[in-house]
Design a protein that fits this description.
Largest sheet: 7 strands, parallel
Number of strands: 11
CATH architecture of the largest domain: 3-Layer(aba) Sandwich
CATH topology of the largest domain: Rossmann fold
Strand order of the largest sheet: 4-3-2-1-5-6-7
Helix content: 40-55%
CATH class of the largest domain: Alpha Beta
Number of helices: 12
Order of helices and strands: HHHHEHEHEEHEHEHEHEEHEEH
Radius of gyration: 23 Å
């Protein structure tokens, strides 16, 4: 997303006929955010709020705006202390009983995440959520609870701690489930779990969320996700409602150990991605060797809108992330459609045999 030019923003959005309010806003930004790289963004936020005040929206609209901004700022502030930690969001039914096999699977999943220094994010409730936090322990748990008109208490692992965040809006809670996640693990559940499954798939498929592993985890011998995948293939892929490669976005797993290995493999060489101008940039811990580079266009050229793949160092536009300066960049003109192909490309750059100096100390 490109930033608005300030003059263009005012010409399209400002209603006063006077420069007094924008001037006062500039003075306020200078007082509270002088020198910040985000100063222009804070300025536009204030202008939007003032524009709403000028229009004098109804009270319900104003309250939605107020509580949305307040809730997001509080969540940003609380999560700042966990900023540098890898996290995995685990979805699943709150109705799963403690004696159900799936409860043991979720608890084992939480323990595996903690053992590999990943935090487990859940909705903070019972069932699969409680089991995951039991396995992970408090230090490796985050609960995103939802405030409801009737009593809604977080599970005993996170309740009353700094690891327990309460949200008033479902849409903001869902935003943070995805925003904070380096991977998503989906266990069987009801309408809510299916809603979350299809929503995260849509966000990743459309590029509104970064590429992360989306793992389908069931109890031993379970048929829940097997039936789901059959529906995806027979009704969506076979009828061309999705691109055939979109199935690559989903990874069924038979055990927590297998699910954990998928996450570890995903980040074994791949670190993150970013858009830099017209180029899509994959950041890698280690460069690809020349033979692997020559294979890229033949194997993954279809995901490029033009040109091919270039391996290089940090781009000038990435200077705002100096801690990532040592990473190798794989740059290309991504067509923004074939997300399943992008997922396959990430698998390719993670394969040890494709890395330079593979097998040497």
């Amino acid at each position: 997303m490109q930033d608005d030019d300030p003059a263009d923003y005012l010409s399209r959005h400002w209603q006063t006929g006077s420069n007094e309010i924008p001037r006062r806003v500039d003075e306020l930004i200078t007082l509270c955010a002088a020198g910040s790289d985000n100063a222009s963004l804070y300025r536009d936020m204030l202008l939007d709020v003032i524009r709403m005040a000028q229009a004098d929206r109804n009270r319900w609209d104003a309250k939605i705006m107020l509580h949305t901004i307040r809730e997001m700022e509080q969540a940003f502030s609380r999560l700042e202390i966990f900023k540098r930690r890898r996290k995995v969001t685990v979805f699943g039914s709150a109705r799963t009983r403690a004696d159900h096999p799936l409860y043991a699977v979720a608890r084992e999943m939480g323990a595996a995440l903690a053992a590999n220094d990943y935090m487990a994010i859940t909705g903070a409730g019972g069932g699969v959520m409680s089991a995951t936090h039991e396995g992970a322990g408090l230090d490796h748990s985050l609960g995103f609870n939802i405030t409801l008109p009737f009593e809604q208490q977080s599970n005993t692992v996170v309740h009353g701690t700094s690891h327990d965040l309460a949200f008033g809006f479902f849409f903001l809670r869902k935003l943070f489930f995805v925003k904070e996640a380096d991977a998503l693990i989906l266990c069987p559940g009801g309408f809510g779990t299916l809603d979350e499954t299809l929503e995260v798939l849509t966000l990743v498929q459309t590029g509104k969320s970064p590429m992360v592993p989306i793992i389908l985890l069931d109890q031993p011998g379970g048929q829940y996700w097997q039936a789901f995948m059959h529906f995806i293939r027979s009704q969506l892929a076979d009828n061309a409602y999705i691109h055939p490669d979109d199935i690559n976005l989903l990874t069924p797993c038979k055990s927590p150990a297998e699910a954990m290995q998928v996450v570890l493999d995903f980040y074994s060489n791949y670190h993150s991605s970013r858009r830099v101008g017209e180029q899509f940039v994959l950041r890698l811990h280690r460069p690809l060797h020349p033979q692997a580079l020559t294979q890229l266009t033949a194997r993954f050229g279809s995901i490029c809108a033009s040109g091919g793949f270039v391996q290089q160092g940090m781009c000038e536009q990435e200077r705002d992330e100096p801690e990532l300066s040592a990473l190798t960049r794989l740059c290309f003109d991504f067509n923004d459609r074939e997300r399943g192909g992008l997922r396959a490309l990430i698998d390719f750059v993670n394969q040890p045999e494709n890395l330079r100096n593979h097998g040497t100390a």
